[in-house]
Fold:
Amino acid sequence: MLKLLVMIISAVLVTACGMPNTKVGDGRDWVQVSCNGFSDWTKCKEKASKLCPNGYDFADQKESLISQNRSMMIACKK
Structure:
């Protein structure tokens, strides 16, 4: 039972830390940017700006006030 619990927790942690990429019609990759803590969306937007110096488009934003986690899907502008 303990072995199963460790496997499940490991799978959740690996999945949560990954950054899934998805191609869009124009060939750009969509990347999930996540930020944690009690800050606002500024931290996520700063991460996105560092990843995309020419700007970015975003498709989705998710926020969990319970876990203090925010994420957004972005695609860098060319």
Observations:
- The CA atoms of residues 46 and 53 lie 10 Å apart.
- The chain has two helices and four strands.
- Confidence is low (pLDDT under 50) at residues 10-19.
